[in-house]
Amino acid sequence: MSAPPRSRSRPQERALGHKPAYLIAGSDWPKIDAAAVRLRSQFDEDSVEQIAVGEEDAADVVASCNALGLFGGERLVLVRGVEGLDEAQVQDIIGYLADPTPGTCLAMFGGKGVAQDGPLATAVATAGDVRIFDAPDDEHAVQWVVKRFSEQGISCPNGVARRIVKRAGIEIGDLALEVEKLATYGRGEAPTEADVDLLVAEQLDVKPWNMTDAWGRRDAAGVISFATADIEKPDDVQRISAIFSNHVRRVRQALLVMEAGGSPKEVQKQLGLRSPYQAQGLCRQARAFSEPELARAVVRLAELDEAIKGGSRLDPRLELELALVEISAE
Hints:
By secondary structure, the protein is α/β, with parallel strands linked by helices. Helix content is about 55%, strand content about 10%. Strands 2-3-4-1-5 form a five-stranded parallel sheet, with helices on both faces. β3, α3 and β4 (about 105-110) form a beta-alpha-beta unit.
């Protein structure tokens, strides 16, 4: 005779503080990241499991939710990149949400492509909360800037707000920073177009080598400027971290070859580079660092990778900036 099914409390019967499930997604990634950091901070480190959809070693979401915690209390299963779930995974999660595990909070975060009226969102809404945050288009961004100034008792002309959006883009996080900067500079006075041109930097068309070249010059301010200008969505933080991690390892390898008496041609051969110019560039940057410095930078970037994948409660973008300053400073 088969064992009776495990009895679970229904969502409305839960005595613990969090709902069984949350789905938070959309194109306004600063707001989504902030929500993820805020929710994660409400759980003990030992009770959090983070899953990145699409990674080769990503755990099974439902299996993780059904696992029993070692220390009791509430558990958080935090899933990033939920828009990458395939249909079978979505159906498994929908089935789980019909009878969620008591004491487990399933929090799913994603970018564009998660429909508010889709099957996953509908199932989550039954068990918990769904929030879709979409970034504004240009015109809505202009009105957002005007409203943000008005909240500080400052009247911002539409033309000035439009100029801010044109220079800074429509990312809410960037616009909030520029509004705060202009409000502080103007000491309560309405901003002018001249103020905007003076204080708001134009968006850059950033290439990976812009960032790594600035690092090779030990230009910490340049590194931060290029790196943050290239962040448009949450996954960009991890992408930029990977760019620096791969590049710094290569520069260290080039330095080791050079210290053993090798030439740029030998560096090209040992590192499997296509172009001699790549090897020459790595050798040039390697001369600006000592081997212990590069070894520490490799370790620091590994720590950054862990931090932005859930090992830290700080905002991933802040973790990136802190790490880049450390590996660039003399």
